[in-house]
Amino acid sequence: MTLKLPIDGFGIVFVALALAAMPASAALGIFGNTNMDDTIDQLDIEHVRGIIDGRYEKTDLADANRDGAIDEEDIAQIEAIIAGEETVLNILDGNGEPVAVHKPVERIVVEYLDNAELVSILNSKDKVVGVDYAVAKSEAQFPDLARRKNVGQMNEPDYEAVLSTDPDLLLTFSPMNIKTKADNLPGVDVVFLGLYFPDISDPAGSKYVDGVRKLGYILDEEERAEEFIRWNLGWVEEIRSRAAGVPEEERPKVLISAYPYAHLDTGTFRTYSMIDTLTQMAVLTGVRVMAEDLPEFFGSSYNIQVDPEWVIESDPDFIYLHLVAHTYSGLSLEPANGYDATDPAGIRAARDAFTSRPELAEMRAVKDGRVYLGSGSFRNDATGGLIGAAYMAKAFLPEVFADLDPEAIHQEYIERFLGEDFDLDQGGVFLYPAVEKGDGRLAGIPEEDSESFYTAS
């Protein structure tokens, strides 16, 4: 499917062609998926028999046991996978590299929010024996997991701490340093699932969805994985189908940028390229992303440094500032945001500090009150950006998404999939200014803060 992104001039053709060049679908990245669809079943056994007797060509995933030959042993491996009895599951990780995962997996160390959430979604919280700094500091969101062994920051974990938990599996957040981690963790399978790669041009075939499916097989929770994928893709399609009906001239222009924390504020703005989840979220809602005019937009780097002069001259309709609650190294940043925040006063003050910058005073977004600060959890949760996109849609195109309740989607995710007892009416600060969801009620801040929000507004 080709998604036509709104860019002036020839850029619109360039984006359409670039997305058209992406694969229309992706096979489940598990060896044994011989017919290259999204599951392993009896059809794969029949396909292997066809390869053996010469009726079919060999496929990339036909060698189920990865011994270099296509034979009856591959059929036995596929039968074991179907029965949930395999002792080794050979997969392609999120980088497309082959990895052998030894089963059963009983003890897991998880890095960062998305892996912690996905393990929870797949009914396997009880298997987590270690977490990184970010999860350890997110007690409100992960009341159980936050108490597990803290193994340090995800890029360079405390390897002795990891090994002390006697894990079977380390789920790594980053596509980098995988070999280094594997070399330092003998006997531990290190897996990068690829959750950080959603794809709005083909969400069903993205590395993100493939990663969810693969972990379902690793943890013997295939049905639960499919339940979550159906729910997720259903809402993605709902948002995308509504956005598709917005006329080109009515699509607002949005700057997606990191909040200018002291340790980042070098006098430039940090915006994001097409591969970043934040940009994917915004584009899904039907807006024009300001960075799409930049030559680096389709590059391999997630962020792009731009001068304030460019931002001011471009004069977007909206500015969305991405917040971070806890850094990879365990530093907690202000303002408090996400599940651990209980009062929007801090995020309100941060917004006021940004909008009071004299050089921004004449920008439309500032004058019209269209500067939003969004929780860092939107970029790094296990929904591939769905929750953040729902809040963005309500903020950027409220008429188009008049009956969309992002908080209801968010609450269902928390209760039905994460299995947590967290009431968004009582806690959590995810978007400021909050957005109205009907009857004067707000989404993005606790309901008890509604009166103070309207007073401040």
TrEMBL record:
Residues 107-404 form the Fe/B12 periplasmic-binding domain. GO terms for biological process: polysaccharide catabolic process. Coiled coil: none annotated. Transmembrane segments: none annotated. It comes from the Archaea. PANTHER family: MOLYBDATE-BINDING PROTEIN MOLA, VITAMIN B12-BINDING PROTEIN. This is Periplasmic binding protein. The lineage of its organism: Archaea, Methanobacteriati, Methanobacteriota, Stenosarchaea group, Methanomicrobia.
